């Protein structure tokens, strides 16, 4: 019995309702791939390509076949998903049996039972671009209406991914700031201990910490923590 596709409006709503505080960027990518697979009436496999620093990788996929088709392109440096990611356009391959732009890639796809594909550019951030890749087992699977649905879906997905990327970056920066504040507090405590023990100034106290750090091949923060622990009587050091 053929499966019923997910209504596009429901898929768009599901993308918009993702709670970024509960999922990470990789999970959002996987949801995008799975929703794209469900939104079409025919059996397809889906992947999401990301390009960072000129290097491509498949960040989410619904089957090994989809990932394999992507990875051939990364290895060769050419192919529809890379072209779509670079241009932001729709790159369609209506029939792999007569594809002459990437014949080796098309041969590989036919060997795995694929007959057509479409890749749609995903502008996520200035430093990150990507493509939504959909592979079908029949030729001419993606008519104008289907491509329009996928383009609309990709636009929603790009917004969701941009928000997820921004959220992850902001959360990571906040964590780094918290760690920096903790590290600074420990170092300041250690400096205070040395200033009291050595009757020296703050600059000399930090120089002592730095020298111990270099001599012992440990981070200044770890040296400072050991000193603070020793002073508090919580360490055997």
How would you explain this protein's 3D organization?
The chain has 237 residues and is an alpha+beta fold. It has 2 domains: 8-171, GAF domain (Beta-Lactamase, 2-Layer Sandwich), CATH 3.30.450; 175-232, Arc Repressor Mutant, subunit A, CATH 1.10.10.10. Helix content is 58%, strand content 16%. The protein has 8 helices and 5 strands; from the N terminus they run ααββααβαββααα. Strands 2-1-5-4-3 form a 5-stranded antiparallel beta sheet, with helices on both faces. A hairpin with a 2-residue loop joins β1 and β2 (55-61). α6 (144-198) packs across α7 (202-216). The longest helix has 55 residues, at 144-198. The radius of gyration is 26 Å and the shape is elongated. The mean pLDDT is 81.
End-to-end gap:
70 Å
Under the CATH scheme, the architecture of the largest domain is 2-Layer Sandwich
Order of helices and strands: HHEEHHEHEEHHH
| Unreliable segments of 5+ consecutive residues | none
Number of helices: 8
Largest sheet: 5 strands, antiparallel
Number of domains: 2
Indicate the percent of residues in helices: 55-70%
CATH superfamily of the largest domain: GAF domain
Mass-distribution shape: elongated
Given the helix and strand composition, which structural class is it?
A: alpha+beta
How is the secondary structure organized here?
Elements: H1 8-16, H2 25-39, E1 44-52, E2 55-61, H3 64-76, H4 80-87, E3 90-93, H5 103-111, E4 116-125, E5 128-136, H6 144-198, H7 202-216, H8 220-232
Features:
237 residues, 16% strand, alpha+beta, Beta-Lactamase, five-stranded antiparallel β-sheet
């Amino acid at each position: 019995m053929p499966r019923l596709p997910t209504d596009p409006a429901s898929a768009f709503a599901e993308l918009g309702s993702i709670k970024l505080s509960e999922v990470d960027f990789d999970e959002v990518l996987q949801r995008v791939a799975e929703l794209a697979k469900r939104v079409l009436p025919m059996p397809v496999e889906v992947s999401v390509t990301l390009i960072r620093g000129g290097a491509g990788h498949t960040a989410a996929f619904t089957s090994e076949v989809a990932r394999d088709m992507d990875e051939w392109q990364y290895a060769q440096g050419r192919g529809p998903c890379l072209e779509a990611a670079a241009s932001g356009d729709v790159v369609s391959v209506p029939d792999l049996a007569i594809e002459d732009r990437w014949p080796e890639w098309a041969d590989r796809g036919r060997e795995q039972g694929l007959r057509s594909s479409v890749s749609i550019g995903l502008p996520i951030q200035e430093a990150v671009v990507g493509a939504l890749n959909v592979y079908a087992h029949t030729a001419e699977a993606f008519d104008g209406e289907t491509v329009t649905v996928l383009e609309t879906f990709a636009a929603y997905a790009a917004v969701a991914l941009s928000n997820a990327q921004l959220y992850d970056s902001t959360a990571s920066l906040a964590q780094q700031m918290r760690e920096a504040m903790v590290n600074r507090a420990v170092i300041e405590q250690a400096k205070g201990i040395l200033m009291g023990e050595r009757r020296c100034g703050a600059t000399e106290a930090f120089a002592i910490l730095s020298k111990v750090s270099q001599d012992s091949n440990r981070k200044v923060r770890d040296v400072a923590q050991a000193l603070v622990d020793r002073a508090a009587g919580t360490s055997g050091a």
